Amino acid sequence: MRNEKTTEEVALGIRRRVFEHSMRNNGGYLSQACSAGEQLAWLYNEELNLGAPTLPMIPKDFAGVPSPSNPDYHTGAGYNGPAAPEFDRLFIAPAHYALVAYATLIEVGRMAPEGLEMFNKDGSSVEMIGAEHSPGMEVHNGTLGIGLSTGAGLAYGRKLRGEPGRTWVFMSDGEVQEGQTWEAVQAAAFHGIDNLYAIMDVNDQQCDGAMDSVMEVGDIKTKFENFGAACIEIDGHDINAMRDAVKEKHDGKPLIILARTNPFHSMSILEERFPRLHYVRFKSEDERARMNTSIAKDLGVDPIDYAH
Amino acid sequence: MVEMVSRPYASAFEKYAAGNKDILCLSADLTSSCEIDGFRDRHPDQFLSMGMAEQNMLSFAGGLGLAGFRPFIHTFGVFMYRRPYDQLMASIAYPRRKVRLMGFLPGVTTPGGMTHQAIEDISVMRSIPNMTILETGDATEVESICEAADSIDGPVWCRVLRGSVPRLFDTPIKVGEMRELSSGDDILVVTSGICTEEAMRARSALQKAGLSIRHLHLHTIKPFDSKALLDHISSVKHGVVTLENHVTEGGIGSLVAETMADAGVGKRLVRLGLKDTYAHGGSRAYLMRYYGLDATAMVRGIEDLMGQEFGITEDDLDTARVEDVHSLVKAEAL
Lengths: 308, 334
Description:
heterodimer; A: 308 residues; 5-stranded parallel beta sheet; 10 helices; globular; B: 7-stranded mixed beta sheet; Transketo_C/PFOR_II (chain B); Transketolase-like_Pyr-bd (chain B)
């Protein structure tokens, strides 16, 4: 279930899929593919210990919300394999990265490419903001800042049950503005939850623009350490650095890997849109065409024929 | 064809607030999504970026209120009460701070799914002492919401529409009143927000079916003029149908039910809205149909009340607006 491609190839594949999707739909979460490509590729392609998917390669339609009258309800976690004791679990804490996460599932053979065609379509489970019934998701995270707390609780519960599997949370740096993130770290440290792992896409961007212009957050590595986590900072485009970072000893503490990233990595023309990178919708046909040509060249593919 | 107004809040807020030094504009990382990016750029001395930290923002606004300011808080409605509910209570509602809570993306007006959809906010706000609740249903109401909210001596919860908004009315919100949109005597229809347009779409087909509809639109949900509603109820023969972009528990359906029960009115009531369910992500038109919030749902509700079918089909309903999910008037596809 792994290593059919190199992690570098998976990261490139993620970006190509997000690029193609965004071109065809006149916009998308392009910058998140730039910043997070290596992190999600590394997690799914080599670091996470996951079983084979338990849900169909082509996602089922939306089948209702949790309720006593919906007994067949299930989340999208089956794309990450079964929730067996030995396997790892992953939450995508910023659910706005869903497009990138879905592309990752396709690249590692956990979802069919048709799944991305269902993105944000009415009646689809492949939702724009990942819902807990969306492929690869297990909990709702569209309200930012709740992912690490849920991860800490799951990790602690699994520890109590003696499960060897780890709990991972993919995070975004904007989440550190929410007080809950800090409450999660202090609780994880206080209770010695060292089977909790987070990798954070530190791209310095949020919806309104550059984080420093919206709300400065200071030295988050020191802050995480002061709140009781083990924290290591790496170049978020350096896969070897991730391989080394996860070896960091963190007895009795959660491990948080800060992956410092470039929001235009591998799509240099996106810098034109700085500081509004959260959701890139093309402002004109001319811009769309220029981005198509430029990004296709960066990614080593032909421009997308989006006219039809 | 109904007139569509682009980003009515953007210009209305700027016109109302700019230069009024007692008004401060607060934002929580959704500045252009709440159409106040132009205000931020042109009036930076009245703008505070609070980051993605709503609990702090609500109590901070309470502090500004204590200092004599009237903060207008802007974020998606759902983020303004679910996480910071305690702060809303202790820092704003109890001490009656003049905080104007501008909640965008009410109900199913967002494809962002459960975490983005404020479906029970009216229920929550109705139960908070000292809270006033206003809801916009068209561009004219969006244009007048700032002045209406700012006239209140205490906190105000506002459901604000954004992006491309239809103009249905030609007079501003008058707090405490209700709009009588048609004056029939068979059935009373009570709607608010985006559901009013849906009920209007159904009106001509219902008329052709021989039904005389009295239609009320509510922009002021709290405080509420019970006597006016009771007068309207006594003017119709058969009963009342409510339709709201909200769960049927605690919203305007409940408001009407409570009013009728309190007065001992023995007429039937059909409450339409989200039926004890969360919604999921999708386009507004899809969600309104899927969850029974549209013109068709109104027709079916009236058939339920009357105990007969009128043979009204989709084609008989006035043309629905078709919205572009990727419209340029929205900051992202949300």
